Amino acid sequence: MPSPLIRFALAASLALAGTPVLAQTALNNAQILQGLQGLTDSAPVITAQQMRNLVQQHMAQYPGEALTRPSLALHLDSLPQINVQIQFRLNSAIIDPSSYGTLGSIADALHNPVLHGYKFIVTGNTDVTGTRAINLKLSQARADAVVNALETTFNVSPNRLEAVGLGEEVLLDPKNPTSAINRRVQIFTVGRVGPTPAPVR
Amino acid sequence: MKGIRILLAAALLAGSAAAAGAQTISYGQAGALLAKSCGKDITKLCPTVNLGGGALKACMDAKISQVSAQCQSDYAMATASIAKRDAAQDAIVQVCGTDAARLCPGMIPQDGNLLSCLLQATNVVSAACNQAITDAGYR
Known about the structure:
The structure holds two protein chains of two kinds. By secondary structure, chain A is of the alpha+beta class. Chain A contains five helices and four strands, in the order αααβαβαββ. Chain A has a four-stranded mixed β-sheet with strand order 1-4-2-3, sandwiched between helices. Helix content of chain B is 69%, strand content 0%. The longest helix of chain B has 27 residues, at 69-95. Chains A and B meet through helix 1, helix 2, helix 4 and helix 5 of A and helix 1, helix 2 and helix 4 of B.
């Protein structure tokens, strides 16, 4: 009969049998933390509004068929960032419970002192299946849902997060615009938040 | 009945944890626990409600008679775990203040460097501060 502590650990685990519970979770958290740290002073400065404007300009400039137009290049490769797959209900911004653990892991990274002083833009992206305008709206609603869960359920300070829907404009795999890999949430570290803390004394 | 037993187990766990320092689980583990124990109920009872902003909790509470005992207890446990981890993280500044002043004077506490300093000095950091760092999940 396992002790309550062990039973609890088992219940808390979604890890595969035989994999150490804590190591598995720590690895995921560590990867997110790794991806989001290291913003340099020379990195491009971007705001949520600028991102939205780029999307609008791109949609106006390339009104054609999804398969014939280029993917929008945000030129943000030098920003710390991660791509995560969050599962949503079909054509909806409702986060599937299977992704609650991933949301929590993102929160673990955002609550780490390494990232405490930083703010982030959370973007939603769809593939090119469906209507372009609806995809834009859906991606914004999905990014909003992720940000809302991080801020409320997982207690991340609201002044550190902004949500931007990028619709189907920014493809991860432009050669395969209908591929599921394009449906993703991407998080960018975009700057510091608050004044420089006073030295320890 | 099963739910009550789990709650008791949780209470025992909390009790023993308080004695040996508060064990806290990560936000990721809390989210995964919620998904594992409540995923089915959520999909069935509250399919159009999102996790954030208390909406899901309100919906599940409104249909509590249809929610499985396992989910009821683990939902409470996940919520409590998140609050506990959050409190543990907030407590560090206070608990480790003296250690920081003694071991890391003059340091600008950003980018995790203060935590690194305290972690490197683990052998000479106070027991309370070491425990606070562990409880916060920063080790």
